[in-house]
Design brief:
Strand content: 35-45%
Structural class: alpha+beta
Oligomer: single chain
Helix content: 10-25%
Shape: globular
Number of strands: 9
Largest sheet: 6 strands, mixed
Order of helices and strands: HEEEEHEEEEHE
Length: 169
C-alpha cells in the first residue's frame, strides 16, 4: 500500500525530480451502474481508483489489487478504455513529481463491501454517473470513456492535447 518499495529506492537517488511512471486506473461499476470513487488522503479530492504496477505485474492484476487494497471491493476488468500519458505532472505534498503513462480499465464489481481499506483514502463511495463529485478533467475523461465503452481511446500521433470531456471523437 502507498508508494511501492521500488519507487522509494529510485527516489533515494533521484530525489524529487520528475519521473515517468506506469499507472493503472480502474473505473468500477456496480450492478446499478454506479461508479466507485475514493477520496484521497493526500489531497482530499475524489478520484478514480488506481496505482502503480509492481515489477512484472500485469496491468489488469494491478487494477484488481488496487481496487481491493483501497476499497475492499472485488472487481473484474472488462476492457481497456483509455491509454495515454497524463497531461500534467502530479506533484505530491512531499515534493515528488511524477507523470504517469496510464492504462484505464472499465471494471465490474463482483463482491465485497465498499469501505476505506487502507491509509490512502479518507472515504469511498458509489456515485451515480449523473451525480459525480468534482473530478479533475483527466479523471472525468477516464469516466467518460468507461461509460461510453467501445474501443480503447489513445492520443492520436502528432496531436498535442487530448480532447476535453464531452468531446469524444
Amino acid at each position: 500500500m502507498g508508494t511501492p518499495d521500488f519507487i522509494r529506492d529510485i527516489r533515494a537517488d533521484a530525489g524529487h525530480q520528475l519521473l515517468l511512471l506506469p499507472g493503472v486506473s480502474a473505473v468500477v461499476f456496480d450492478e446499478r451502474g454506479r461508479i466507485l470513487l475514493g477520496r484521497r488522503a493526500d489531497d482530499g479530492r475524489w478520484s478514480t481508483i488506481g496505482g502503480i504496477p509492481e515489477p512484472g505485474e500485469e496491468p489488469a492484476d494491478t487494477a484488481v489489487r488496487e481496487v481491493y487494497e483501497e476499497t475492499a471491493v472485488h472487481c473484474v476488468p472488462e476492457n481497456v478504455v483509455l491509454v495515454r500519458a497524463m497531461p500534467e505532472p502530479v506533484v505530491y505534498p512531499n515534493g515528488d513529481r511524477c507523470q504517469y503513462l496510464d492504462i484505464t480499465f472499465r471494471c465490474r464489481a463482483i463482491g465485497g463491501e465498499a469501505r476505506v481499506n487502507d491509509d490512502e483514502s479518507l472515504e469511498v463511495g458509489w456515485f451515480s454517473v449523473d451525480a459525480l463529485p468534482v473530478l479533475p478533467p483527466w479523471e472525468g475523461f477516464q469516466v467518460e470513456r468507461a461509460v461510453a465503452g467501445g474501443s480503447s481511446w489513445f492520443q492520436p500521433a502528432g496531436t498535442a492535447v487530448p480532447p476535453a470531456p464531452g468531446t469524444l471523437s
